[in-house]
Task: structure prediction
Amino acid sequence: METCNEIFELLSAYLDHELPAVTCAEIEQHLARCPECVALERSLRSTVGLCHGYAPNQAPTPLNQQVRTQLFETYQKIIAQRNERGPS
Ligand SMILES: [Zn+2]
Result:
């Protein structure tokens, strides 16, 4: 099973629209088991459009560093909250 950090790296790569469909499927498999990453993916989707929301014929808008930092901080909060709850 992929770790959440690996998923986050995949999601980050997707911000540049680099992910092939098979990788997108891997992410979705992880999301099916990991509510924390679902929350992260939602925030990404609302920002850039992810997987199903991405229209390949549209020119993607590059994310600036501020947005990337914001997303990373969101992810860190999600992980910290889970650690506070302890292992399930
Ligand atoms: Zn996860």
Summary: Residues 4, 7, 30, 34, 36-37 surround zinc ion (CB under 6 Å). Residues 4-85 form one domain.
